[in-house]
Amino acid sequence: MKKLIILIVFSLFMNSFGYAQGDSTSSYDIIDSKQQLAATGDDTSRTLIWAELSYEYAYFNLDSSLFYAEKALKLSEKIGFAKGSANALIGFGNLYLRQGDYPRALEYQFKALDLSEKFQFEREKAISLMELGFTYQDLSDYPRSLDYAMQARELFRKNSWVNYNVENEISITNTYMATNKKDSALICMQKVYDDPKNTIMLPVILEVLGNINTSLGNFTVAKEQLHRAILADIKNNDLYTLIWTYNSTAKLYQATNQRDSSIYYATKGFALAKKIQLNEGILINSLLLATEFEANDAAKALYYRKIYDAVYNKMYGQDKVLALQKTVAEQQEKQRQVAENRKAYENKLKQFAFMGGLAILLIIALILYGNNRQKQKANKILEKTLANLKSTQNQLIQSEKMASLGELTAGIAHEIQNPLNFVNNFSEVNKEMIAEMKEEIDKGNYNEVKIIADDIEANEEKINHHGKRADAIVKGMLQHSLSSTGVKEPTDINALCDEYLRLSYHGLRAKDKEFNAEIKTDFDGTIGKINIVPQDIGRVILNLINNAFYAVDEKKKSGAKDYEPTVSVSTKHSLLLGRGVGGEVTITVKDNGNGIPQKIVEKIFQPFFTTKPTGQGTGLGLSLSYDIVKAHGGEIKVETKDNEGTEFIIQLPA
Q1: Disulfide-capable partner of 529 in 193, 369, 455, 490 (CB 3.0 to 4.6 Å)?
Q2: If we measure between CA atoms, which residue out of 410, 408, 418, 427 comes closest to residue 466?
Q3: Cα–Cα dist 188/173, whole Å
Q4: In terms of pTM, does the model score above 0.70?
């Protein structure tokens, strides 16, 4: 985490106040803020100073930081001072991020962002976006981190907030490093280093450049940069940045196999991190020390490993992951609600426009005919038309469902015939064996009778097994044909995919004996059962598989040379942010057909849009699939290339 690097006290509150970054916050900053506090009688200024004090104390006195953040937020809410509330929330977010309490950090950062956007506080919005970038970077969620940092970059550059922009560029650089884009990281940070306006943050820029050059193997350059950074940090009494510089220097010596020097700098970084209670500083230095001591001092290695494990569990333990999932889910729900409200507002505007047009028509009708009955008649016609439209829509949806059921029928017949054949065959065998057993009884050969009875019992078990198989197929068919209850239940997604893949394939084979395609599956056995509405998700999977088989069959019929039709279905379980429990399940349906033209990709999820010939598709399959997946809180995406094929990706919460 390269957060909170050395921002100058006077740069954060640009009008009159500022946050001090890192341990460079001196007693003079605190005294100056308290003197301003004593001198002012203005409640709005008082809240901003309290927010500033909260930020300053966060680097060496967490209790005082929390005390001033609470006072700032309480007074701001009392007097209705939104800007003060936004800055207090930023202070809370910074405080909890320093403690490694990521769920609470995200909670306050999102609140600060929402408030800043509501009242159009550009500075506070930019800082909130930057802080979110830092938090998601710590959580190894690099796509989100980069997204927030890029949004902040646009605002910082637009308003020429130099120091903010430098800190944000360092966040972007670290994300590039974490995603192994080292050349991009070097280019980004070299531009920052070459800009003469950024000299005030030169020590931390040098530390980041040193870290990059170490990873690139430029050890001589890295050593010179890191030693310059150490001297500057000590001169500035910037203990916070010094922790990171010591750690980067230790990693340099570790990379060059100079263990004693690596341990020396990691020990100094560890001691400083404990001094200012910086959990992440303790974490990275204790891990490095545990690694270095493994070779020659098992006791010390164990000592630092225990410290690392304790801090790691504190920051990333299961309770934190669950809290984090809750915070992220709440924010996603809030964003979804905002999107729905926006859509509802737009729909309302459209309704108003529609009603306005209708009112004009009615006024014209009133003027033309001079009779109120015409207005009533027009309204009745409109209501009838809307009712007919809704009825037609419901019929089309039912038609789509029955069409998919019809496509399944042949496959179900094939699937159910196999267990029925087993039942019939074993029943015939048992009939013959019973007759044989009677003969042996008459002969008194009871040992042979027992052997025959055991065989009959084994056959009965097989009959029972295949009977249950047929029963399951029938129930699955009935479940598909029935209207969805909308109730989620634990479902084996791998079994669901496999079932519909086979039914779809055999159904198409029954309709067209010449149809053939290679089927590939790759199911993740770690998924277990997930909560879904099986009828609905089953329809989605069936629709995508049918489309895939249609695509490869069309390409084969077109006479493609050396072409082997192939359809692949796979599942994968991914944990949230790479740690803990929860996460998402990805279902992928891939074909090697002709692909979808780029000009119509954006239209495929629209109702009634289809590329199939007239009479072969309703155009509702993908539209309904999109709605079903969205209703499950998931996403459905498509990736396609001309003449290479199409891949549909469903992402569902686990």
Answers
A1: 490
A2: 418
A3: 6
A4: no
